[in-house]
Amino acid sequence: MEIILVEAKAIYNADGGTLYLRNDDRLTFAIMRNDSMNIAMGGTTGDEIPFPPLMMYDPDTGKPNHHAVATHVALTGDLVNTDDAYETDDFDFSGAKAFDERAGYRSTSFLTIPLKNYEKDVVGVLQLINARQPDSSQVIPFSPSAQPLVEALASQAAIALDNQLLLDAQKHLLESFIRLIATAIDRKSPYTGGHCQRVPAITEMMADAACFAKDGPFKDFDLDEEERYELTTAAWLHDCGKVTTPEYVMDKATKLETVVDRIELLKARITLMKRDAELEHARGAGQAGADISLLDQVLNDTHAQLDENLAFLEGANIGGEYMDPDKIERVKQIGKLQWRDVDGTSKNLLSENEIHNLTITRGTLTAEERTIINDHIVVTIDMLEQLPFPKNLKRVPEYAGGHHEKMDGTGYPRGLKRDEMSVPARMMAIADIYEALTAGDRPYKKAKTISESLGIMKKMNETDHIDPDLFRLFIESGVYRKYAEEFLDPDQIDEVDEAQILGQAA
């Protein structure tokens, strides 16, 4: 468009030219050129144009603004050729006159041309100022004979602008859709409400750190604007497969939780067991010669034991880092206790499924449920590989699908090793882990401090689960702390011995 503006000026030997872009109901200054005043702003110059946009409608009355020639042309789609701005009453040129007075200039002839897209909508306005004699600087009116050529150039500008607007609109739509998916996943689970937004933040910080590295493994690493956009897109979509993960698995806060926490059912059963003990006490007390004191002691002991068992089961229901074998055995023994339902049928206090869940050694998920959770990454890859990504986004499935892989090949879903993964995919793995460790919105664990989180990641680094070079960059560049200061609770931000985390001698 800048070239077109310059060429249009050349056709008429015009002293100046302005390109306005339509933004809703405003005309904003995009490019300004004036030869005699040595003005070059907007476009490739990088210099911002300080003038406010022209309003196409009166903000108070809503009436169309036909006073200014540029807005009139934008409203009507008609070309306007003005021989002398100082000698016409057709339009208000007070703005141009005020500029002239300040700058010592004389704005005389104007040629104002609408830029129309293929639907004949005006997307901008091209305005030329002060046509000059070819062999002198004398200002003359714009000759109608050259108007068709300039209008053809304006049409080319409109096509270029419309194509760019369409590309921008498509890109904005894609970005909005991506964020829509991420938001839907986060809202699906109230306990992971920011994960899909925070992982991209860490990933982008790591990408910046790698690009800024002056030495070491990443001294030659770089991402251009398109590659960075590709990585950001992948980070936003890295968990899109979770749309298929059942809520009762994704949000499983306790071991017995399904649609409801089944610990409440255990409480009801134990209440019935207490009722039966009280009925047994009443029957015994009604017998002749009954030892009431002994019966009371038996009832109290039974209640106390049942309360103790319930308290133990409530504790076992909370997912932890490790469950001792003796506790697992106690769950099984308690499960064999008998209770009677409303029909009088005797049953084990715990079903096989309840025992299976209560004896989970780490966290709250059974092996079967963990498989369902892990399957989200397979679904993510399948979903993304079905999308017709353009060339500049072709690696989105690879980047997004690698955040659960490990450097030693023991990760999932493809068991990739470090040399089989790209640097951006390895970045996302670290981002995903650090966000999960420091997250304060998970029901099954307490938010860890940054030192605790990095301590765990240190062990993962030592066992070839994460990329050692990227982990060092993550620490030495301070990305871990920059993210913490922006996203974490201040109580989580504690002192970190970076040398110890990196295994360096003090």
Number of domains: 3
Mean pLDDT: 90
Separate helix tally: 18
Instruction: Report the strand count.
Output: 11
Task: List segments where confidence is low: pLDDT < 50 over at least 5 consecutive residues.
Answer: none
Instruction: Tell me the β content.
Output: 5-15%
Query: Helix/strand/pairing class, anyone?
Result: alpha+beta
At the fold tier of CATH, the topology name of the largest domain is Hypothetical protein af1432
Query: Per the principal axes of the C-alpha atoms, what is the gross shape?
Result: elongated
CATH class of the largest domain: Mainly Alpha
Summarize the amount of helix as a percent range. Answer: 40-55%
Q: What's the CATH architecture of the largest domain? A: Orthogonal Bundle
CATH homology superfamily of the largest domain: Hypothetical protein af1432
Which radius of gyration do the C-alpha atoms yield? 36 Å
Structural features, described:
This protein is α+β, with helices and mostly antiparallel strands and 506 residues long. The chain has 3 domains: 2-166, 2-Layer Sandwich (Beta-Lactamase), CATH 3.30.450; 190-246 and 368-501, Hypothetical protein af1432 (Orthogonal Bundle), CATH 1.10.3210; 263-364. The protein contains 18 helices and 11 strands. It has helices spanning 2-12, 69-76, 94-103, 147-188, 195-212, 225-237, 247-250, 263-285, 292-317, 325-335, 352-358, 367-385, 396-400, 423-438, 450-462, 468-476, 479-487, 498-501, and strands at residues 16-23, 26-34, 39-42, 54-55, 80-82, 110-116, 122-129, 131-132, 139-140, 338-340, 346-348. Strands 1, 2, 3, 4, 5, 6 and 7 form a 7-stranded antiparallel beta sheet that branches. The chain has a two-stranded antiparallel sheet with strand order 8-9. It has a two-stranded antiparallel ribbon with strand order 10-11. Helix 1 runs antiparallel to helix 4 (147-188), helix 5 packs antiparallel against helix 17 and helix 14 packs across helix 15. The longest helix is centred in the first third of the chain and has 42 residues, at 147-188. The two termini are 60 Å apart. The model has no long low-confidence stretch (mean pLDDT 90).
